Amino acid sequence: MKAIKSNTAKSAVGFGALVAAGASQAAIDVTSVTSALTDATATVGTIGAAVLGVVVVVKVFKYIRGAM
Question: Which of 1, 29, 37, 41 has the fewest CB within 10 Å, making it most exposed?
Answer without folding.
Answer: 1
